[in-house]
Amino acid sequence: MSKREIKGKVYKALKTGPKDLDELQASIGTYTSKKDIARVLDILVRDKWVERVARKYQLKYTMGRPGNPSNRCKGKYWNYEKIQEAQGGLDASTEDEWFNHHAECVPHEDDASSTSHLSKLKYFELADPIQDTPDDQFDVTTHTGGYASIATWSGVKDAIRNYGVAILELNLYENYESKFKDEMLPDPEGDPIGSIMVCAVGYDKDTIWFLNVWKKGWPKYSGISRQYFEVGCGSACVLIDTEDYEVAKSMYGTVIVSSNVPCEIWIGKTLYTGKVARSSVELGKEVCVYAIPMVTTVEGDMYHLITPTKEDPNVSVSFVFDEEVPWITRLRKRIQLFL
Q1: For domain 252-319, which architecture applies?
Q2: Could you identify which of 179, 183, 204, 290 might form a hypothetical disulfide with 266, taking C-beta atoms 3.0 to 4.6 angstroms apart as the criterion?
Q3: What is the pLDDT of residue 320?
């Protein structure tokens, strides 16, 4: 097994919690020697991906769960592409390249001894929508409309062009360092090992560029290809302004679903879990709201067909299930009657 393969398996094992060398070998497989695992751990500790506490190793940097690219068109947010179509359509498809010049003001980790300033970076500081006023007259208070989800490659480019930035959830795969920290992330190979949120600030014909806030050795900007986006981008969104907000309000209604017991709640094709779910739905579109109880004391499921309209854009659906009292509870009550 190569060092790169061992590194990926070590990272996966440590995501479940700190482990010593024996536990890591048990997770990776006894066919991999402790000596080889220790060599990889030394590299990870040296590069500050892993730290050693007593006899155990633990991750210094953690990632989120891998996202599902098929969910980009779903979710509780308005759809950015449809909002733009209502105003004439996407316009970034005609642009070969564009870059947010404000991103140059964001320091790279290699440019300073401390990276604490990176955590203070605000979305608004990079937002610069296309407008006729000079940059020094830009008013960030116009960016208060809410979020819109982005489903397509062209949509991300358009959002970057119009708003200066787009937020992407990218899955990282076992081969993410196969190009040795090159500017371009390699197209996905192997299993996803986690996800990261990045701030996309530019694009050219074949690449979307985002800011890196990783450890030293990585360039200030990294890029992904269209293939990477289609396979490995779990979600994408942009904070829209009040103009787009008003357009979205005329296109979407809100569905709020509640239940007296925890459920798997489906609003159209989007799954939520818990007792309450909220989602945006296009006006005039019939949607099936479905609830499946997640507790053993309730049997059966319920559904409603709803259609938000301009006259009634906000729809509430309430599911009330009859909870069966567990037999042990009934037995205790009977015993208490005789005490």
Answers
A1: Sandwich (2.60)
A2: 290
A3: 93
